Structures are given as structure tokens and as C-alpha cells.
Write a sequence for this structure.
């Protein structure tokens, strides 16, 4: 995979692109999608297309809980949010589309912050952002147009169950400071983007955790992966919009409202709560909700 990238000349292109260019690209893409959704929101309100009732409050709660977790741990927004949406009865393709759309606004701010504070490994960024985005595009297309939602739902719940178990494993395992060699980084990013789009989450647990196992700087690894996540999320969302249209705006608005409320609290919790305890609680939450999803899909 890395040789293929070199053949295409992407390594040379990456040398000419600065982090300032990446920052401006994030701003431009965010403004474009924000303008589009503002237009849809105004059009929908004028046509009385939205019902902001009790169900909308549940979406706010899901966004609040997921952002609270992500703010304190730096990962698991997609995993926890998708698990909650599936538990609320949202079809997998709309759950994943909603999560990725709402994540555009949070990951964009996160990416700009990491660029501002020089938390980016530029070489690593270009090794994961291209293949990660390609994986996300393929995954989004598969779940939105090819895979049957009812058939795939128990498999997605099982995938989320495995991620929940992994989070519990990560909480209880002993710290190992030995460096590991993670080969084929672009391939890892491709798998992370693919599974993230299909399952509604997992980019952080899959990509960040594996890269950190090298023993590299957590600051630059987390900053780089979080910045690349914006582009992975953005292109997955574009596919969802192109194939599905925008039939999930109420869910997205609820997740964004809940996330905005929870964002400052997440930082406060991160400074107060034991992160291992929080990781255990998140793992249990994901295991229970995804376990319920499997049981409901197979036996109800």
C-alpha cells in the first residue's frame, strides 16, 4: 500500500502541502457543509417538516452522553453514540450517517486546534488521511445503498460489542511500554475508515490505539489521527448525503445540541474523574446496548 502511494507521487505532493493548507481546507469544507445544513434547516422549519418532541430530546441526550465520553477520553464518540441510536431504534444507515454528520463539526474544531498547537506529524497525517477517507467512502456506500439495514444490524451490534469488550480490555490490561512495530499504516487507516463508516464508529479505537502501541508520542499521534478524522468523517457524510439524501436532520441537530452542551463538561470531567473508571463505564455501556441490539435483532 505504501509503495502504491509513492508510485502515485502522493509523497511528493505532501511535501508541497503545509499544515496551513490543511487548516484552510478544513475551514472551507466546514463552511460548505454548514451552509448546506442551514439552508435545509430554514427550509424544513418553514415547511413544518420537523417535530421537536420527546424523541428529539432523546437525540440530545445521546449526543450529550457521547460527547461527554469523547471529551473525557479522546475517543469512543462514534461507538457510544451509534450504540445509543441503535438502542433507540434508528436504522443502522441513518445512525451512522447522523453520527458522521454531527462529527464534522466537532472533529473540524479539534483538527484546527491540533494544527494551532503543532500536534501534527505531517508524514503520518498523509499516510492515513487518504486511505482512511477511501475506506470511509466505500464503507458509507456499502451501508447506505448495498447492505440491507435489518440484515446488517445484528452484525453492526456485534462489531460494537467487540469494541466495547476491547475498551474494557484496555481499561484492565497492564501498561506495556515496549514499542511495537505497526506495519502498513495506510492499510490500517483504510480498515479504520471502512469499519468506522459501516459500524458508525471505531476510527479512534482502531487507528489511534494501534499507532500508540508503537510507543510514539501520544500528543502527535492523537493530534494527527484526530485531524485526519475530519476528512474521513467528511467524505463519509458526503456519500451518505448523495445516496440517502438528508432524512436524518432531526437526529443530527439533536446530537449537535447535546454535544455542544456537553463539550465543556467533558473537559472538566477529564480533569476530575479516573480515566480507567470512565473507560470501564463506557465499555459496559457499549456492551449492554450492543448486546441488547443483538438480542432484539435475533429474537424479538
Amino acid at each position: 500500500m505504501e509503495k502504491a502511494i509513492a508510485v502515485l507521487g502522493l509523497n511528493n505532493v505532501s511535501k508541497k502541502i503545509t499544515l496551513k493548507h490543511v487548516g484552510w481546507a478544513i475551514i472551507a469544507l466546514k463552511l460548505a457543509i454548514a451552509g448546506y445544513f442551514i439552508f435545509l434547516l430554514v427550509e424544513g422549519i418553514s415547511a413544518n417538516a420537523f417535530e421537536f418532541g420527546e424523541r428529539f430530546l432523546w437525540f440530545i441526550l445521546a449526543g450529550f452522553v457521547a460527547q461527554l465520553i469523547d471529551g473525557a477520553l479522546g475517543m469512543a464518540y462514534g461507538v457510544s453514540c451509534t450504540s445509543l441510536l441503535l438502542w433507540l431504534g434508528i436504522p443502522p444507515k441513518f445512525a451512522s450517517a447522523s453520527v458522521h454528520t454531527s462529527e464534522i463539526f466537532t472533529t473540524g474544531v479539534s483538527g484546527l486546534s491540533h494544527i494551532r498547537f503543532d500536534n501534527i506529524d505531517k508524514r503520518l497525517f498523509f499516510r492515513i488521511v487518504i486511505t482512511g477517507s477511501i475506506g470511509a467512502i466505500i464503507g458509507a456506500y456499502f451501508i447506505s445503498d448495498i447492505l440491507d439495514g435489518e440484515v446488517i444490524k445484528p452484525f453492526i451490534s456485534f462489531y460494537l460489542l467487540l469494541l466495547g469488550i476491547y475498551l474494557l480490555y484496555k481499561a484492565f490490561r497492564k501498561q506495556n511500554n515496549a514499542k511495537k512495530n505497526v506495519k502498513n499504516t495506510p492499510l490500517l487507516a483504510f480498515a479504520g475508515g471502512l469499519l468506522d463508516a459501516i459500524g458508525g464508529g471505531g476510527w479512534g479505537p482502531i487507528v489511534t490505539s494501534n499507532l500508540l502501541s508503537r510507543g510514539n508520542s501520544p500528543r502527535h499521534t492523537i493530534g494527527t489521527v484526530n485531524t485526519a478524522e475530519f476528512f474521513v468523517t467528511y467524505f463519509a457524510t458526503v456519500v451518505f448525503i448523495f445516496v440517502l439524501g438528508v432524512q436524518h436532520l432531526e437526529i443530527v441537530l439533536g446530537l449537535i445540541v447535546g454535544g455542544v452542551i456537553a463539550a465543556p463538561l467533558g473537559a472538566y470531567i477529564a480533569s476530575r474523574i479516573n480515566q480507567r473508571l470512565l473507560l470501564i463505564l463506557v465499555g459496559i455501556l457499549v456492551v449492554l446496548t450492543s448486546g441488547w441490539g443483538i438480542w432484539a435483532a435475533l429474537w424479538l
User: Anything to note?
Assistant: The chain has one domain: 2-299. Residues 2-299 form one domain. The CA atoms of residues 96 and 200 lie 4 Å apart. The mean pLDDT is 81.
